[in-house]
User: Which sequence fits this backbone?
């Protein structure tokens, strides 16, 4: 399975390094623990659920796949930035963005239903990242005057989820009919997100699916409609490496991660 059959975690740098977390996990009964491919991450094997461990409750780590961590790192959030995470529940990427921002700036973490927003708020509190994070119930496909212009925006769009079949095998039994409309929703969210990006700012689009119609084709349509954005090359840690075209698909059999798509877009400095 993806992540080598282990559970992928991210260490909380306010409390512990990845190496220290490995030691603590082993002392606390984990079967194995080793650094992941993403700096600051750990791959561990547990007897029970990772969320039932005392170290989890005490905020030493959160559970987040390697591919998901890589997508959040591509945002390159920095201290003092204004950042929007528009489809954020259950909050893993928000936690990584907050970690990168080191408690300064403004990170608004949104999702479409109140109970999902509460999941994010709980995770942020457990990890001790409340200094710069606000949570907001918001429909990412529609304009919201409450949202500010941002330096960086993450759209981890709702998708068919075919990249995480190893973790959620029941996805294969989903009714395919509603999935047909996903590219339209993804495009609406991306187009709406674009309006909040300040000139020179970053818009990162990701999904946990491998379908071109939800990935490359959505990006292609978006770019034909909004000429103020361009794809921007980026580099991920080895063994994944460079994405010279500004987008990459992570494959479970090739990268030992979930199946994932990441595309980085930059808005021109001179766009209004």
Assistant:
């Amino acid at each position: 399975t993806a992540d080598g059959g282990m559970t992928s975690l991210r260490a909380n740098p306010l409390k512990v390094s990845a190496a220290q977390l490995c030691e603590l996990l082993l002392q606390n009964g984990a079967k194995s623990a080793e650094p992941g491919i993403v700096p600051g991450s750990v791959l561990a094997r547990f007897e029970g659920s990772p969320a039932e461990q005392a170290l989890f409750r005490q905020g030493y780590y959160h559970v987040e796949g390697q591919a998901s961590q890589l997508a959040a790192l591509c945002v390159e959030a920095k201290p003092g930035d204004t950042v929007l995470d528009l489809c954020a529940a259950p909050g893993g990427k928000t936690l990584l963005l907050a970690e990168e921002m080191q408690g300064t700036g403004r990170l608004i973490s949104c999702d479409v239903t109140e109970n999902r927003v509460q999941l994010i708020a709980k995770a942020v509190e457990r990890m001790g990242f409340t200094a710069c994070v606000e949570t907001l119930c918001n429909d990412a496909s529609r304009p919201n005057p409450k949202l500010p212009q941002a330096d960086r925006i993450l759209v981890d769009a709702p998708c068919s989820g075919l990249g995480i079949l190893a973790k959620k095998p029941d996805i294969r039994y989903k009714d395919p009919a509603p999935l047909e409309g996903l590219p339209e929703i993804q495009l609406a969210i991306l187009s709406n997100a674009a309006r909040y990006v300040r000139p020179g700012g970053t818009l990162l689009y990701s999904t946990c699916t491998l379908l071109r119609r939800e990935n490359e084709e959505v990006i292609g349509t978006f770019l034909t409609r909004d000429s103020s954005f361009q794809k921007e090359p980026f580099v991920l840690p080895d063994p994944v490496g460079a994405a010279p075209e500004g987008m990459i698909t992570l494959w479970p059999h090739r990268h030992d991660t979930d199946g994932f798509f990441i595309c980085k877009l930059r808005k021109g400095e001179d766009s209004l």
User: Anything to note?
Assistant: The two ends are 45 Å apart (CA to CA). The mean pLDDT is 92. Residues 114-127 form the longest helix (14 residues). The chain is about 30% helix and 25% strand.
